[in-house]
Design a protein that fits this description.
By secondary structure, this protein is of the alpha/beta class. It has two domains: about 5-15 and about 210-540, ANL, N-terminal domain (Rossmann fold, 3-Layer(aba) Sandwich); about 50-200, Rossmann fold. About 30% of the residues lie in helices and about 20% in strands. The chain has a 15-stranded mixed sheet that branches. Helix 1 (about 25-35) crosses helix 2 (about 50-70). The radius of gyration is 22 Å and the shape is globular. The model is unreliable at about 465-543 (pLDDT under 50).
C-alpha cells in the first residue's frame, strides 16, 4: 500500500502511526499520577492548586456518593458547569461510577437546557448554584431525578473564598436554598470523604461522554465518545506537539469550555496524558481577569477562539504593555477560521506562528493540522495527524475518489470516531458508513481538496435536507456550538435556532473592558461568521 503523501510533511520524530494504542482510560492516567506524583499540580484555579492526589480523592468521594444516591453503570450524569475544578471532579467521579458524562452550556436558554437534558435522558445533574432555580423549573419536563449543586467558590483560595462570600456570592446568584431531595456537592463529598474508588473496571470500549452537536440538521444530537477514543486523541496530540511541548512543566490555560469537544476530548486528554497542569478559566469574557491569570500563571499554552485573541490583543492592558506574554509557546485557536490580520497582529505581539487545524465533534478530535515546526500553507488546515486518514470523494455518490486538487466531500477514517449519535441510529448511519473493507468512515459534509503535498483546504459545504427544505450545513451545525456567546452568528443559523440575534458578547454594553477590546474586534467578528456547528477549524500558534 502506498504511504499517504502527507507523511513527508510531518515534523521530525512524529510517527506515521501510534498503534497499538494502550488499553487505558484517563482514569488510569490520573490514578498513576496520584500514586507516583501525588503532590504535583493537576489543576490551577484562581490561585488554588489541586494536586493529582486531591483530584483522585475528591472524585473517589463523589463517585461513592453518586452510587449511594442511585447512579448505575451506563446512566448519564449531566454537567451544567463552567470551567472549574468541580467540572473535572464530577466528570471523573461519574466515570468511576460507570456513568456517562453529558455536559452542556450553562448559559443556554430554558428551551435549550430542556432540549439538552432530554437529548440524553440524564437522571442526575450537577449544576452551579446560580443556575439551580433555572434547571429546577425544567426538571418536570426531563428525566432528571437528582440534582447536586455546587458553589463556584468551593475551590477558591481561603481569603478569596471569604471575600467572594461577603462581596459577590449573593449578587452572582450563588447563595441559594436547596430543595428537599437535592444535594450540595460539599455535603456529599464530606460524607464519603474516605471512600475508596468504586469497584468495577471502566474499559476503553465503554462510553465516556455525550457531547451535543447539531450534526447536519441543526437538531441537538448527543455524540457518544468512548474512553479509548479520548486516550487516542490525547496521544495523537501529544505526538504532534512534542517538538514544542514538555511534560510536567508546561502549563495549559483553558478558557475554552469543557462541554465542547476541543477542550473536553482534546485539551483535557492531552493534559492528563502529558502531565500538564490545566489552568481553568470560568469566564473568558472577563478579559481583564484572563490577562491577570496570564500574568500570574505564566502559561505555556493557551486554547482560544479568534475573537478572544482579538479581545486579548485589543485590551488596554495588552496595548499598554502591562502583560508579559513571553511564557507562551503555543496558542490553540478554534471554532472559526483565523483572519490574516488577526494572525499578523498575534505574531507581532508574541513572535508566534499561526497553524490552522480542523476537526468535528463527531470525529472526537481526529485532527487535521499544520505541522508545528514544518511548512505552513496559507488557507490550508494542514494534514492528518498519525492514524487519521482522509479521502476526498465525489460529493454525489460518496464513494468515488476525486483526482488530487479537485473539490469533493472530506471523509475521515480514524480509530477514535464517535460511537454514534445517542439513540439515533438513522442519523448515525448518515454520518458513519462502512467501506468495502468494513472500515468505519465519517462523512463530514465539508467540501475541500487535497494538494500535491498532502495539505487539505476546506471549501464550501454540501446542502443538507431538513423537512424538505435545503439548508446549508454550515448554518445547520451552528445550532449547538459552544461559542454562541462569543461570535455573531450568520442570519441562516439564527433562523434555524429561532433565538433571534446573538451578539459577540452578551452584556457588552455594560462592560468597559470589553467595549475597549470590541472596538478592534467588531470587523474581525463579522468576518469570522460561518463557524460550523459541531466542528472547529482553528489555529495553533507556536513561539
Amino acid at each position: 500500500m502506498t504511504a499517504p503523501i502527507w507523511l513527508e510533511g510531518y515534523d521530525e520524530g512524529v510517527p506515521a502511526t501510534l498503534e497499538p494504542y494502550p488499553e487505558r482510560t484517563l482514569l488510569d492516567y490520573l490514578s498513576d499520577a496520584a500514586r507516583n506524583w501525588p503532590d504535583r499540580p493537576a489543576l490551577l484555579f484562581k490561585g488554588s492548586i489541586i494536586s493529582y492526589r486531591q483530584l483522585e480523592d475528591d472524585s473517589n468521594a463523589f463517585a461513592a456518593a453518586l452510587i449511594a444516591t442511585g447512579v448505575k453503570r451506563g446512566d448519564r450524569v449531566a454537567l451544567c458547569l463552567p470551567n472549574c475544578p468541580q467540572f473535572i471532579v464530577a466528570e471523573f467521579a461519574a466515570w468511576k461510577a460507570g456513568a456517562i458524562v453529558s455536559p452542556f452550556n450553562p448559559t443556554y436558554t430554558d428551551r435549550e437546557m430542556g432540549e439538552a437534558l432530554r437529548a440524553t435522558g440524564a437522571e442526575t445533574l450537577v449544576v452551579l448554584n446560580r443556575f439551580y432555580d433555572k434547571v429546577k423549573a425544567l426538571q418536570a419536563t426531563t428525566s432528571v431525578k437528582r440534582i447536586v449543586t455546587t458553589n463556584i467558590k468551593e475551590y477558591l483560595p481561603f481569603f478569596l473564598r471569604i471575600a467572594y462570600t461577603f462581596l459577590k456570592e449573593k449578587k452572582e446568584g450563588d447563595r441559594i436554598s436547596v430543595r428537599e431531595g437535592d444535594h450540595r456537592l460539599t455535603h456529599l463529598m464530606r460524607a464519603f470523604r474516605r471512600a475508596p474508588r468504586p469497584a468495577g473496571r471502566v474499559a476503553p470500549s465503554d462510553p465516556s461522554v455525550i457531547l451535543l452537536s447539531g450534526g447536519t440538521t441543526g437538531t441537538p444530537k448527543g455524540v457518544v465518545g468512548l474512553h479509548g477514543g479520548m486516550v487516542i486523541a490525547g496521544l495523537q496530540l501529544q505526538a504532534w506537539l512534542r517538538p514544542a511541548m514538555r511534560e510536567w512543566t508546561d502549563k495549559i490555560m483553558l478558557p475554552l469550555p469543557l462541554f465542547h469537544t476541543y477542550a473536553n476530548t482534546g485539551v483535557q486528554s492531552l493534559a492528563f496524558i502529558n502531565h500538564n497542569p490545566i489552568a481553568l478559566i470560568p469566564n473568558p469574557r472577563e478579559i481583564r481577569d484572563l490577562l491577570n491569570e496570564i500574568i500570574d500563571v505564566r502559561p505555556t499554552f493557551i486554547a482560544t477562539i479568534p475573537t478572544l485573541l482579538n479581545g486579548i490583543m485589543n485590551h488596554p492592558m495588552a496595548r499598554e504593555g502591562k502583560v508579559d506574554f513571553s511564557s507562551i509557546k503555543l496558542t490553540f485557536s478554534g471554532a472559526a477560521p483565523l483572519m490574516a490580520e488577526t494572525k499578523k497582529r498575534f505574531e507581532e505581539l508574541t513572535g508566534g506562528v499561526i497553524v490552522e487545524g480542523y476537526s468535528l465533534t463527531e470525529a472526537q478530535m481526529a485532527v487535521i493540522a499544520n505541522p508545528v515546526l514544518g511548512k505552513n500553507k496559507i488557507g490550508s488546515v494542514g494534514m492528518p495527524l498519525p492514524d487519521v486518514h482522509v479521502r476526498i470523494v465525489d460529493a454525489e455518490d460518496g464513494r468515488t475518489s476525486v483526482p488530487q486538487g479537485e473539490v469533493g466531500e472530506i471523509v475521515i477514517k480514524a480509530p477514535q470516531l464517535m460511537q454514534g449519535y445517542w439513540q439515533k441510529p438513522d442519523e448515525t448511519r448518515e454520518m458513519i458508513r462502512d467501506n468495502d473493507r468494513g472500515e468505519r468512515l465519517l462523512y463530514t459534509g465539508d467540501l475541500g481538496y487535497l494538494d500535491e503535498d498532502g495539505y487539505i483546504f476546506i471549501g464550501a459545504r454540501q446542502d443538507a435536507r431538513r423537512d424538505g427544505e435545503s439548508v446549508d450545513r454550515s448554518a445547520a451545525r451552528m445550532r449547538c456550538d459552544w461559542s454562541r456567546d462569543e461570535i455573531v452568528l450568520p442570519r441562516e443559523a439564527r433562523s434555524l435556532q429561532g433565538a433571534g440575534e446573538v451578539r459577540v458578547r452578551a452584556g457588552a454594553a455594560e462592560d468597559p473592558d470589553w467595549q475597549s477590546a470590541a472596538a478592534g474586534t467588531a470587523a474581525a467578528a463579522s468576518a469570522e461568521r460561518g463557524i460550523s456547528r459541531g466542528n472547529w477549524r482553528g489555529a495553533l500558534a507556536v513561539a
